[in-house]
Here is the input.
Amino acid sequence: MNTPISRRTFGKFAFSAFSVVAAPSLFIRPAIAAGPTEVSYGANKLDIHFPKNPNNAPVLAYVHGGAWKLGNKRKVGSKAKYYTAKGYIVVSIGYTLFPRANAEQQAVQIAQAVNWLKTNIDKYGGDGSRIALMGHSAGCHLAAMATLSGACTPKLLICNDTGAYDVTYLAKINNGRVPRLYSALDKKSKWGRWSPISYVNNRIQPPTLVMWSGGRNRDRISKRFANAMISAGNNVIQFAGDSYNHLSINSAIGGSNAVTRAVDKFLTRL
Here is the structure.
């Protein structure tokens, strides 16, 4: 495991790199639109999907994947429709893609978005004290790094199938190099700093659901991260999605299946 990096080091970077932008003082809660409402949180934008008549609704914030350089906040699959029907506000967070931003800068943006939601989502009918942060693939890595570093504190964290919990270890099991899919992380001097596992001892972390697919080494990598979290005294639930591939373990959420049931059960903690 990498030597832990202090929360203060990451946090200083986080809050000097981007200033948090508050909502306008004359803000009035918008009428509920048929589609998502796009809002700037400072460094980038997010989409807010509403349930009917939100009133202190719990919030599910989602971070898309795409190898840190692809994808966008519109890629939410069935999650928005499914969870808004269950009374959640669903927020999809946009972030600046590589190479315009590196992984650390992206994680800072995710933290800024969560902090903006905690302060401002009440104006949209949400409860800022009940935020679950979910990420898939690269989005999982960024959500984990933003949370474990202490740059933001969602009530729950859902980590869905990344190989980048420990970039040094990822390279070690791949002949000393990060695989091509992880090329945005191919800066050896930053591997420790860009690894969520480096931050597991920073503090007591939010309850975390760690899920993995049946892809090559996904179980090995995810269990190693989950065990490190548990060893540090954190509350971790594990979901072995061996029957899913890397894409389907994300796209299946919102359907009638085991991965949706696992997420639903975990979200009752909100």
Observations:
- The chain has eight helices and eight strands.
